[in-house]
């Protein structure tokens, strides 16, 4: 009988313990560029049909965070009817960017060689790799897809075949581990033996 290797147990624990950690819980500690490069290298190891590697990332850190915070807040204001505009949401939009150690814009490129859903699925796999690697490094994160992503084309210099599908917020944190809320596996799996 085969027994799980230490690598398997480590990976299983990382997967089981990964959680969404939001900017309000970030400590303000900088994430150095070398660490971000290592996380993105993990992201780009994701599976991809026909090796289209459809993901692209725009990393905002240090002064770039202020540019992104202003852009997102201004887009919220510009695209929200005056009667629905909330000053608190405008301020929160800026604040969660500024509380982060880095924010990564997630971009999918559509090659035309594959159905768009496959390119999106590959990009989501890349984000999951990023998330797991960040979790293993003690860095919290979460994937957000605000309405502003539909208006980021010029700001992110998107090509005609590209789409921003969200932002990944990252930051060191002191949040205690918490148990996942998942339905029992038996509700999700049917065995045919």
UniProtKB/TrEMBL annotation:
Gene3D superfamilies linked to this entry: NADH Oxidase
InterPro entries named among the record's database cross-references: NAD(P)H_nitroreductase, Nitroreductase, Nitroreductase-like, YdjA-like
EC number: 1.-.-.-
Cofactor(s) essential for the protein: FMN
Domain of life, source organism: Bacteria
Domain Nitroreductase stretches: 15-172
Keyword field: Flavoprotein, FMN, NAD, NADP, Oxidoreductase
Matches recorded under Pfam families: Nitroreductase
Class of this enzyme: oxidoreductase
CDD domains in UniProt: YdjA-like
PANTHER family in alphabetical order: NAD(P)H NITROREDUCTASE YDJA-RELATED
UniProt record similarity statement: Belongs to the nitroreductase family.
Protein name as catalogued: Putative NAD(P)H nitroreductase
Natural source organism: Parapedobacter deserti
